[in-house]
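Entry 14. Structure prediction run on the chain below.
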Amino acid sequence: MENELSQTWLDKLAILDFAFQPIFNIHTGKIYGVEALLRNYQEIGCKSIFALFDEVYKHKILYTFDIHLRDKALAKFTQISNYEELKLFYNLDNRLFDMPDFSEGNTKKILQKYNIQKKSICFEISERHEISGDNNFEQTIEHYKSNDYCIAIDDFGVGYSGYKLLYDSTPDILKIDRFFLSDIEQNVKKQLMVRSITHLAIQLGIQVIAEGVETAAELLTCQKIGCHFVQGYFVQRPTLITEEITTEYKHIQILLQQNKRVGNKPYEIKTYIEQIPSLSVTSNMSSVVDFYNNNKSTSILPIVYEDMEPLGIIQESTIKEYLYSPFGRSLLLNEGSSKSKLKKLITPCGIADINSDITNIIELFSNNPESLGIIITNNAKYYGFLSARAIITIMNEQNLLYAKEQNPLTKLPGNAMIEKYMAQVNTDNGSYLLCYFDLDNFKAFNDVYGFRNGDRVILLFADILKKQLSKEYFVAHIGGDDFFAAVAFDDMNEQQHIDVMSDILKKFTEDVKSFYHTDDRNNGYIQAKDREGNMKIFPLLSVSASIVIVKENKSKKCLKTLNAVLSLQKKYAKNERNHLCMSSLI
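Output returned:
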């Protein structure tokens, strides 16, 4: 490095320090890496980190200053226990290439100085400092990516380029901005947007970090959507003390264990996963040729980094013209530029953890008609390949099972699926809300307005349940005018789920009025025969709800008792002003 810092800046550099914040696998709770966050900038007279970098940029020493910071961050990184197995996420200012002090190869020298592998550092780049007329952002990405460094896009969704960025410069990792994750469990619009971003990224072979997660509900929603990793105050606040960074955090482990579902367990897809051997991205082309010679029945070759993190796949169809002609094979095996040839042959491939919800994997596959399958990882390391044929088989089996066990009118799961869910509640240690819905005065409406309109009312309520309840809920049709809904929850959002049930009662009572003739609607009642054949006045349709809260770690759960309580409360709910009756098993 030709340019050095003045003593004034070296003194300021000595005051600056780095805090680390862990990044965890969202399915296993095991640590994946840490982000280095600059601290003590106020002590050298800067109001913010951005003000500090603006200052060094103005003095045209941004690159030299940043290299000194990288050295400082990597030196402290080595103090973390088991740092060899972690990634250090380091934030870059994308104005580096404006600097006259820029030179190449300095990061490599620092890594060698501390005996750190290149795979252990990931450069985070944000569009925060986009400069009009320049292409600094994409230039920064291309420079470090061409030198085989891991690249993460920070603050995704609030920058200038958005999806164009993913098209032009495919990063390795995407960090979704906190704005989209705040209270995401309550915001359907945010859920749709994060799901769209996440699934598109995964289809491009990009791994996703949910950044700034502050609650258990936010974490579990991001897990359900399909994010790979999580970072935020809920896991741990940034710490200056490296000893506080551990491989596992008990509260995360407990939360993930409690949230496990029968359909999420690894053995559900394990039998379908092909254990296709992988090849390192540093391999030469002769290894690719040998692979296809030794694996005649395999059409794809998974390519991984040296630490076994997946990069993508090489398709046999891409290189078959080389493989099956003497001239092509000779050209392919020309070792003069074998590494670059291999990298150019790699096709992005969707990546999912072995603990992922199978519905997410199916959705990922279905959204990409050209997909050959999904790479499966175990704690971020390559595990195997779930082929298109295997995913289609799973889809067919699930569709057959669902069709067999769903209600023919509403297409909701029926009693067999309810029994399975209740069996899960009986064996799980988590907290659950169970709700039994029963339409009030339905027989009288059916008698007066006919069975066809009765079916329309049933479909109306089923539609309300589908729209009002997010994917985390289990929704089913017991039969006739009886419905069931349930959800696992943590104590922090218990009242939120109760309020959702109450809102459903209000919405149905209001929406169903449109099914009545004007006179009946204005009167607020209809006349019909009761079960004894006597004419009576019946109020307009409403719905009652019987709710049972099953508290976390409740050991004495009995399905017979739960069903009896739900059924008994239903009678009391019909006489309550708000048509809701609730109890709790604690």
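The radius of gyration is 29 Å.
Filed with the rest of this week's runs.
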